[in-house]
Amino acid sequence: DVQLQASGGGLVQAGGSLRLSCAASGFTFDVYAIGWFRQLPGKEREGVSLISTSDRSPYVADSAKGRFTISIDNAKNTVYLQMSNLKPEDTAVYYCAADGPPLFSGSDYYYRRGYGMDYWGKGTLVTVSS
What we know:
The protein is globular. It is mostly beta strands. Strands 2, 4, 5, 6, 9, 10 and 11 form a seven-stranded mixed β-sheet that branches. Strands 1-3-8-7 form a four-stranded antiparallel β-sheet, with no helix packed on it. Strand 5 and strand 6 form a beta hairpin. It is 3% helix and 47% strand.
């Protein structure tokens, strides 16, 4: 059974930093796509940063470029999202999600919206105050 456990959310002032963690159990970091999504109040889910062993290029949302960095610690089976210079508009529930073989082969449009992800963790709330 694959389980993704996200943590690290909280309340932070604008300009601050947070690191989200996603511990994966029952999931092998061999052939995969994994990353972070978020859902802002009243808005559609959006991809924040995704990486894959497929031919897809690593993805970082325009809103996250230069501020958010995704990384994987294979030894700990954990994916991180380091977020810096946080803004009030980053306030959202953040989810980690993963896809295993066979990997989703649909368009980037759907990939970046999470349609190909088979496994989802419970969200962690990030609140950025102004």
